[in-house]
């Protein structure tokens, strides 16, 4: 009984470890990017994360603890903003000067990092790095730690956005699938007598 109980406890602990939120997000981003992310930011307790593969020029966002992901090209990233209590505290956008963070403490309600993409359907992705309800949570960052982390990511995004945008290749025409293919229609029916002769 003791051995069986110990085995079930170990199995349960391994299952909890495997399904831990940040591990699930990391696995989902790795799967979407096709490689281990070079840079990764996870909003703990909120089920969201963002990962970059600089070699492939790709960025992936994940929410619902890795249940949903979107993949973008790095050149579709237009900018990033650090939002403190509803006000943009720091920002960097492609083709603009970086606006540095003036305050390094004193957030009252929340600290968010917003990534802006050139995508009309999903134009932005926001990670909440800290909120006023996080004080009692275990392993939660403080407001000043969240501001410092957000400021580091603004600097990182500035260095990424300063790089020249690679020219996109012309789109390659794709052959329609077998279900979409239809035989060409002639305007006039074929003359069967011509074939017989």
TrEMBL record:
Q: Where is the composition biased (Low complexity)?
A: 167-179
Q: Could you tell me which residues belong to the region Disordered?
A: 165-197
Where is this chain compositionally biased, Acidic residues type? 185-197
- From what superkingdom does this record's organism come? Bacteria
What is the official name of this protein in its record?
Uncharacterized protein
Please name the source species: Phenylobacterium zucineum (strain HLK1)
